[in-house]
Amino acid sequence: MARTRLTPERESELYGTTLDLLREVGYDALTMDAVAARTHSSKATLYRQWGSKPELVARALRHNKPADVARIDTGSLRGDFLAMVSMADDCQMERDAALMRGLFHAVHDNPDLFQALRDLLIEPELNGLGLFVHRAVERGEISADQPALKYVTHMLVGAFVARQLVEDRPVDQAFLRDYIDAVLLPALGV
Question: Which of 72, 55, 71 is nearest to 63 (CA)?
Answer without folding.
Answer: 55
